[in-house]
Design brief:
Strand content: 15-25%
CATH topology of the largest domain: FAD/NAD(P)-binding domain
Oligomer: single chain
Number of domains: 2
Structural class: alpha+beta
Bound molecules: flavin-adenine dinucleotide
Radius of gyration: 25 Å
CATH architecture of the largest domain: 3-Layer(bba) Sandwich
Largest sheet: 6 strands, antiparallel, barrel
CATH superfamily of the largest domain: FAD/NAD(P)-binding domain
Strand order of the largest sheet: 13-16-15-14-17-18
Helix content: 25-40%
Number of strands: 21
Amino acid sequence: MKRKVGIIGGGAAGMMAAITAARQGAEVTVLEGNDRVGRKILSTGNGKCNLGNRKLDLEEYYTGNSRRLEECLKRFGTEDTVSFFQGIGLMLKEKNGYLYPACEQASAVLDVLRFELSALGIKVANGCKVGRILPGPEGGQIRVESGDETYSFDCVVVACGGAAAPRTGSDGSGFRLAEQIGHKLVPSVPALVQLRCSEPYLKAISGIRADAAVRVWDNGRCIANERGELQLTDYGISGIPVFQLSRQVNYILRRQREVEITVDFLPDYGREEYEALQAGRKLLQNDRTVEAFFTGMLHKKLMLQFMKMAGLKPGEPVEKADASALDKVYRLCREWRVHVNGHNSYDNAQVCAGGVPLDQLTEDLESLMAPGVFFAGEILDVDGKCGGYNLQWAWTSGYLAGKAAADGNQIPRCKQRGI
Ligand SMILES: Cc1cc2nc3c(=O)[nH]c(=O)nc-3n(C[C@H](O)[C@H](O)[C@H](O)COP(=O)(O)OP(=O)(O)OC[C@H]3O[C@@H](n4cnc5c(N)ncnc54)[C@H](O)[C@@H]3O)c2cc1C
């Protein structure tokens, strides 16, 4: 008798779980809420799909259980991802360690996965939104309800994603399924998302992009920093460094605390070098207007705003300007301070931090509360930075959960309950 495995959610993790389980000889059905599988994959990597990273660094992941995460990534890591995709016909290319399909089309990643689902005879039920999982006695059948339909499986993999980008199908309903069977979740917040700030003058400087070092402050302590292209918008800040820091900021905001961010727009200058630069500019350009004096340092709109904040008039002669006001402009270039009072919603977030804790699962990602129910992908309390980290986790966890779900030996191991 073939083992019957049900996969709830046909995203990256669900498709990997389905393919792996079917290759192990299981009879696999994917229950997907959308009218098609893998919708989110199409928007990844700006349509190019950054599906992994050859320079994967564990420090770039966040989870409540790093040891378990490390073990999982050892069992199915980047090179396994490369072999898997090459094995289903996808040519890959690498840029600074970042892995993409060679044709730079995310649709190719989805296509090879879909072709493999079909080649393995995996049934896909689209438009099948699961509302309830009813685990049976240990080793018994698990019932899954979707509308009026009830399905029965030997094992189930829950791969519904988190709550980010709900237009792609991951609307947080997987979290409710996990709670129904007894899991206590790590609270979730949007991650890899834009931040909203309270400064009233943001409209005047919106549209600027600049290389910058960005630091997050909590109670006067710098808790995180990133460097990269910062984007100023009419409501706040965006760009890769902001995305990377957003999950830490959002967890602080969740505790009703305001967060300060400082931006250094000249991160390549050391302190002495910067002082020398200021002294040199004073010598050479002291016969100009304030505006002319600061021209060429940073984007013009930003310099004009900094002059305004320092109380300087752009047209006044620099030799008559208040020296401390000139210093303030120099300081703002190195330490522009903004107050973050919110973030964009899950609609704009690339991932969702929080979810089902790894501690509540076995090493094969099987629920300690409901034997026979496995979890994979973003629904778990693992999220990573930009750079292929989140899809790598989807492939890794999908592989491990799919393999174990198809392997009946896993079920008695679930005796390690009682957390
Ligand atoms: C714009 C954008 C760009 C991104 N770019 C990258 C990138 O380049 N590299 C990278 O590593 N990561 C990227 N990510 C993150 C990455 O796409 C996700 O972390 C990953 O797709 C998560 O896979 P998943 O299978 O866990 O969840 P999802 O891909 O969200 O799939 C979950 C599936 O489950 C279905 N579903 C949900 N609830 C139910 C239910 N109750 N019943 C049945 N089906 C259900 C959904 O319809 C969906 O198809 C990006 C994300 C976004 C939004």
